[in-house]
Amino acid sequence: MIKQAIVVRRDIHMGTGKLAAQVAHAAVLGAEKVRAIRREWFESWMVHGQAKIVLKVKGKDELMQVKRKAESLNLPVVQVDDAGLTQLEPGTTTCIAIGPAPAEMVDRVTGELKLL
Question: CA–CA distance from 21 to each of 17, 18, 73 (Å)?
Answer without folding.
Answer: 6, 5, 27
